[in-house]
Structure formats: C-alpha cells, structure tokens
Amino acid sequence: xxxxxxxxxxxxxxxxxxxxxxxxxxxxxxxxxxxxxxxxxxxxxxxxxxxxxxxxxxxxxxxxxxxxxxxxxxxxxxxxxxxxxxxxxxxxxxxxxxxxxxxxxxxxxxxxxxxxxxxxxxxxxxxxxxxxxxxxxxxxxxxxxxxxxxxxxxxxxxxxxxxxxxxxxxxxxxxxxxxxxxxxxxxxxxxxxxxxxxxxxxxxxxxxxxxxxxxxxxxxxxxxxxxxxxxxxxxxxxxxxxxxxxxxxxxxxxxxxxxxxxxxxxxxxxxxxxxxxxxxxxxxxxxxxxxxxxxxxxxxxxxxxxxxxxxxxxxxxxxxxxxxxxxxxxxxxxxx
Length: 336
Ligand code: SAM
Prior knowledge:
Blueprint: H1 3-20, E1 32-36, H2 52-59, H3 67-80, E2 85-89, H4 99-108, E3 113-118, H5 123-133, E4 137-141, H6 147-154, H7 159-171, E5 175-182, H8 191-200, E6 204-209, H9 220-223, H10 227-235, E7 240-244, E8 252-256, E9 261-265, E10 278-281, E11 286-288, E12 297-298, H11 305-317, H12 331-334
Parallel strand pairs: 1-2, 1-10, 2-3, 3-4, 4-5, 5-6, 6-9
Antiparallel strand pairs: 7-8, 8-9, 10-11, 11-12
Bound molecules: S-adenosylmethionine.
C-alpha cells in the first residue's frame, strides 16, 4: 500500500472517530444548523411574544454576531460535524445586516443547502438578492389570509405585503413553502382559506401545532389545534393520501386527489424527536441541542476543537428521547 493511500485511510479513520464522538445512543448527530441571527422582529406574533413590551425588550437586545464571526463558527462546526444544511432564522432574519454576504460565505464553506425562515415583511425587495447570494429555499410564515385574523396573530397589518413577498420569491426562482402556526380560537378559521391560497399558487403549506414555549410554556394546551382535528377539517373539503415523513424532517405530508401537497408539524401529538438532527446557535453564540432546553452552552471562538467537541456532546444530551417538553425561552430568542 502506498504512503498516500495509508495517509488517506488514516484521515478517514480520524474523521470517522471525531464525528462519531458526537453521536448519541440513538444514533443522532447534528446535520442541520439553525442560526438565530438576531432577536429583533418587525411582527409581534402571539405565539412568540406576550405583548409589545416583550417585543420592545427583544428589539432593544444587544448586537448580534457579525458575519465574519458567524462564518468562522460555521466553518469550525462543519469540520466537527456532518453538517449539510444551514437554516437562518431569528427574530426576523431579513433584518440582519450582511445577510447576503453571510449566505454567500456559508455556500463558500461547502454547505449547499442554505435556507431561511422569514415573516416575509421585507421579502418583496430582498428576494432577488437572496437568490443571487445562493439561498436555496425559504419558509414564509403566514398565519392568516384574512387581514383581521392576521392582525390578531401578529399584532401588525401586512397580509398583502407578505403575499407580494411570496410572489417575488417565487418569481426570483426560490423554492417557497408556507408555515402556519394553528391556534384554536385564534386563527383556526383560516385553515381552509390558507390551504386554498397555497394550492392556487402551487405552493406547499405546513401547519404547525403550537408549542409550549416562552410565555406559552404553561398554557399552550389552551390553544392546541391537534393534527387529527386539522386533518378532519381538511377531509371535509379534500380527499387525500398520506405521504409520510422523511427521516429527520419535522413535517409529515399528505397529497390531495388533485396532486397538491400539505404538511403538518405535529410537535405535540405526533412528536419526532427520535431522529432529530438539529443544532441551534443563538444570536450571542450559544448552542442548544433541543428547543426544550433553556441551558445555553457558549461556544467561545478562543477554545480549541476538543472543548467544542465536549460542548457539542453536551448539547446532544439535551435532545429529548420522545417528545418536546417545553421551555421558558421563546423562539424569538432561541430561533424558530
Ligand atoms: N421571523 C421569522 C418568521 O416569522 O418566520 C423567523 C423566526 S420565527 C420565531 C419562526 C417560526 O417559529 C414562526 O413562524 C413559527 O412558525 C415558529 N414559532 C414560534 N413560536 C412558536 C410556538 N410557540 N409554537 C409553534 N411555532 C412557533
């Protein structure tokens, strides 16, 4: 055997052993990194913040990490983990200065699947630049098509503006999905209108069960609109077949007889922790292995790879075995 091939095999062995260090007893590791770019937001959604005061506090939060620091972290994490996807979120990621350079830098680091979750408020003017920077896909949150219900959910008026953003993103060639948090007594009247809105545009929509996070930690049950009930409402209008859930995905999908697809993210009634591969990085450099955890772990750029490995293993231990158990932190903080 040549020296080069021995060296090659040793390198593979080294990579395998360093990666398999960061794997739990269920075979889970981190393949997807969700970065909360900032806590600031231009909407005040009821499942995220208790009211204007909480939003004001988040919007007054200190600086987020600059592009170069985030890129350095992504590159180091990619060396230690089998990372293949980065999702940018927040707060509202379209408010992050340098977003296009960040996307370009993540692509240059060898991660092709760079995705974004946005409320779409600023999307109309930004969509072409995001596509040009290398963004692959985005999820736009839209909790109602009726303005009055939208305002009840988001404390702002902007349905038409968000619809223009969705259309601009599609026109720019971005793959777009719509995300809707369904809350009983709040926006449940919008289930079928939203489905029709998405189908008319040929888009996939996913409905999320509300999660017990932040100010809803102890009262999410009150608003829970479970998957079974959503399916019953949809069955009143459409016939559909299950398509199932792809490994480590959050949503299960169904397809209507007309060929339209919709998904449900049933965190509460059909949890999917068993194959979760997500690692979260917040806007001040802390990682979390699970949305249920309110124990931030600081990744310090001065620390060496061995310490980062230990911290990543610690984050992996935060993952739940079966189900999400709730957290005092809101998604505005930890990233949705
Ligand atoms: N501002 C962006 C947006 O609105 O899409 C990104 C951040 S926001 C926190 C991302 C998403 O997190 C929301 O649209 C919603 O789908 C989800 N989210 C936040 N709080 C939630 C909760 N308590 N239950 C379920 N989903 C929640």
